[in-house]
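Protein Entry — a single chain follows
Fields — amino acid sequence, structure tokens
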Amino acid sequence: MPLLRSTKGHTLTLPPRRVSVGESAANEIPIAPGHGLAAVHFHLQPWESGHFLEDAGSGLNTLVNGQPVSWAPLKHGDVITAGDLSMTYETESGVPVLNVPAGEPDAGSPGPPDAPPFEEPPVPPSWLPPAALLPPAPPGSWRARSPSASRSGRRWKILFIVALLLALTAAAIWRYLNG
């Protein structure tokens, strides 16, 4: 599964659905205050072989590889910068591009063969609030939220199309009667 890796080596596995990232606790990936992010800073959406990033329009900018973007497909190794926080997007197929500096062992790697396994639990990243470290919600709770959100978006699209068709029909009738 694709993931985000911080400059300190902390990782967040991305779920196979659209997620929002920002300082609001309502985000799927909440970021602790103090890193210069908006309440909802950007969204990550599964797409083809990975994800794409969509800036949430806060005016605080989201950068991919140092370039401001409003929308960008992500590939392995892309660096996402939002506020003071930088994360690397990684996929299973790619080779990790971020090395953890010496002296900061990564809890996920066993280390050299002759070294004892790393026993200390990993320290949570400073940008991730403690509430985000809770176990994921059971699938039923997500199912209850997601369909209504997608149905609501679908309703607006249908209403827009119906309103557009009515306007075009009214314009055609008006031209016919006055032309």
The first helix runs from residue 139 to 178. The longest strand covers residues 42-47.
